[in-house]
Amino acid sequence: MSPEKVSPEKSKAPVLFDRVLLKARQERAVRLGAAAFLLDHVASDAAERLAAVNRSFASGIDLATPGDVLRVALEKQGVSLRPVEVTADDSAALPLAPGSIDLAMSLLALQFVNDLPGVLTQVRRALKPDGLLLAAMVGGDTLTELRQAFAAAEAEVEGGASPHVSPFADLRDAGGLLQRAGFALPVTDFERLTVRYDNAFALMQDLRRMGATNVLAERRRMPSRRATLLRMAQIYSERFTDPDGRIRATFDIVWLLGWAPDASQPKPLRPGSAKFSLEDAVKKAGGKKG
């Protein structure tokens, strides 16, 4: 079966991210010596979450996770994932035939997809009935401190502000995306990590080594002024320093879990009648098969 074609209307998603630049930034991060602590943490968590599913997967994919950290982590559990990339033109069809996979995973990649509803819909159609999507993306208030410091510094030094930090989906947005894409039993979960640095420039260096610097399509093309950067670092220190003199940076991880619809699945309860954690949902929905 050939990969599913994307309908014309799906190609009209707004272009928020320069995905060609994203690839270049990720390649630069590898050359600099990647800062992988966040990805390592999420990959370890993903392996634990998947281990809670009492079933085996024969045809899994890793959708655009940077590097091979996820595939290495899951090989220890006997789970093999085939890497699948999202193209620079992410409205294009993924190389996945309908009903061809039983597991799709993606870590810290979906936040940079322009047509995320379209990509999730393609993944859902590529999953076999009762196939699983388990993904994590940066979201919520990630880098809120850096965003605030840049905005204040630019307003003060330059008389206006330009975008430096990408917009991120929150927990409610993520749940809506799963429902819109047609996943059954959709569940979202949230984790907040606080990472501390000596100063704002140390944080920005780590972001370069993560391949996570500004790739917004509407970013300012000229480098930031030295005076603006110095004032940004000063404001960051004034507002977000802990008692020991180190600054803090927020990283929010939004987890998404959904199943391709299948007649054997339990029917959803009435809205508001119950709440489950992601771990409970994995165990309940995945534990019915050996």
Outline of the structure:
The protein is an alpha/beta fold and 290 residues long. The chain has a domain at 8-143 and 166-196 and 253-286: Vaccinia Virus protein VP39 (Rossmann fold, 3-Layer(aba) Sandwich), CATH 3.40.50.
What does this structure look like?
With 290 residues, the chain is α/β, with parallel strands linked by helices. It has a domain at 8-143 and 166-196 and 253-286: Rossmann fold (3-Layer(aba) Sandwich). It is 36% helix and 19% strand. The chain has nine helices and six strands, in the order ααβαββαβααβααβα. The protein has helices at 19-32, 37-51, 69-75, 116-126, 144-157, 171-180, 200-210, 226-239, 278-286, and strands at residues 60-63, 81-84, 101-107, 127-139, 184-197, 247-259. It has a six-stranded mixed beta sheet, with helices on both faces. α3 links the parallel β1 and β2 (81-84). α2 runs parallel beside α3 (69-75) and α5 (144-157) packs across α8 (226-239). The longest helix is centred in the first third of the chain and has 15 residues, at 37-51. 34% of the residues are buried. Residues 1-11 have low confidence and may be disordered.
